[in-house]
Specification:
The complex is a heterodimer of chains A (126) and B (234).
Chain A lengths: L10 H14 L12 H8 L3 H13 L3 E4 L3 E4 L3 H25 L4 H19 L1
Antiparallel strand pairs in A: 1-2
Helix pairs in contact in A: 1-3, 1-4, 2-3
Chain B lengths: L1 E10 L2 E11 L4 E5 L6 H9 L6 E6 L2 E2 L8 E4 L11 H11 L5 H10 L13 H13 L5 E5 L7 H14 L6 E5 L3 H4 L5 E6 L2 E7 H8 L3 H14 L1
Parallel strand pairs in B: 3-8, 3-9, 6-7, 7-8
Antiparallel strand pairs in B: 1-2, 1-4, 4-5, 9-10
The chains are: A mainly alpha (126), B alpha/beta (234).
GO molecular function (chain B): ATP binding; ATP hydrolysis activity
Keywords (chain B): ATP-binding, Nucleotide-binding
InterPro entries (chain B): AAA+_ATPase, ABC_transporter-like_ATP-bd, P-loop_NTPase
Chain lengths: 126, 234
């Protein structure tokens, strides 16, 4: 199925984010080959020029590398992937804290609620 | 490269395009958007050499458009025109006989991708089937410019998706440019590099789709609605 996109963000960035998540989740592992630009374009229903831009941007960030005549691969540099993982974590936490602060919660409230939530989750599992 | 230099097109007293100057780059997928009667089809027909400017010039690769432009420009009409007895493969042969850049093998590949049987009669196909067959005939040409007038209109979502995917699979953006008109903007937006908004025969705005999202946090559909609402308030 053609993917749905958020209308307020460039599509090349949204595809970048999806690829980053796959790499961080280890669904696409270090050294794995990415789909070709054309394949990715067909899968997502997106202009091949847009996918090219996504790949170039990922390459600039060192997350993928293009080998001439062979295609595009996830970097084998595990440090880069680890940094990406940390970055995504920080982004999500920062987002969460900003949302909570906007609602008037203090840092202590936030930490307490996280502990509560975590205990609740454990409780459910038992 | 397609250039419009102060192009006005009138049909009798009706102005379809009004002093339009614009140039379109190679290797892009460009959407021409606007309400019914805004001049979209005329815009394409002028590039295809099917109608000629009342004033001004239309140039393709620096040459003024004449009827001979059909060797460089593939045009997909909004209409369904075919001989009653024709099978899909007859139409395919007809195209091959008319256009030296028509690639028969590619045409069969596209038909297969779109799940159209070549030995079916065109009139036996559903509307969606004919819509897909037409796309296959157009995409099988290695023409530098592909024009598509409402390629998705009146077709169900599955057929529209199959056309969008067929288009992505078989267009060669290193050599080809696509200019298409459509009302199915939501669906086509991820396909577009650029959008040209027409209103009352003029170019109301032209945007790069990624930039529009990046700088105005706006989608193409919203932008089009705003352009038309602006007019209502006047």
């Amino acid at each position: 199925m053609v993917e749905e996109f958020d209308t307020t963000k460039p599509i090349y960035i949204q595809i970048m984010e999806k690829i980053n998540k796959k790499i961080v989740r280890n669904e696409w592992k270090a050294g794995d080959k990415l789909p070709s630009v054309r394949e990715m374009a067909v899968q997502t229903g997106v202009n091949p020029n847009t996918i090219q831009r996504t790949y170039s941007e990922l390459e600039r960030m060192g997350i993928v590398e293009t080998r001439r005549g062979q295609g595009t691969f996830v970097t084998e540099n595990v440090e880069v992937i680890e940094r990406l993982r940390e970055q995504l974590k920080r982004d999500i936490v920062a987002d969460f804290i900003r949302n909570m602060t906007e609602l008037g919660f203090t840092m202590n409230d936030i930490i307490a609620s996280l502990k509560d939530f975590s205990r609740g989750e454990d409780g459910e599992k038992q | 490269m397609i250039e419009f230099e102060h192009v006005t097109k009138k049909y009798g007293n009706v102005i379809a395009l009004d002093d339009v100057s614009i140039s379109l780059e190679k290797g892009k997928i460009i959407g021409v958007l606007g309400a019914n009667g805004s001049g979209k089809s005329t815009f394409l027909k002028l590039i295809a050499g099917l109608v000629f400017p009342t004033k001004g010039k239309v140039l393709v690769d620096g040459m003024e458009v004449t009827r001979n432009i059909s060797s460089k420009v593939a045009y997909l009409s909004e209409l369904d025109v075919y001989y009653d007895s024709f099978m899909v493969q007859d139409m395919l042969e007809f195209y091959a006989s008319q256009f030296s850049d028509f690639r028969t093998e590619k045409a069969y590949d596209i038909l297969e991708f779109m799940e159209i049987q070549p030995d079916k009669k065109l009139r036996q196909l559903s509307k969606g089937g004919r819509g897909r067959a037409k796309i296959a005939f157009t995409l099988a040409r290695e023409a530098p410019i592909l024009l598509m007038d409402e390629p998705l209109s009146g077709l169900d979502p599955m057929v529209r998706e199959s056309i969008v995917k067929g288009l992505i699979s078989f267009v060669d953006l290193e050599r080809q440019t696509i200019v298409m008109t459509t009302h199915e903007i939501d669906e086509v937006e991820p396909l577009l590099d650029e959008a040209i908004f027409l209103r009352d025969g003029k170019v109301a705005e032209r945007v790069r789709v990624d930039e529009l999202r990046e700088t105005s946090r706006d989608s193409v559909v919203n932008r089009l609605k705003k352009i038309y609402k602006g007019e209502e308030r006047r």
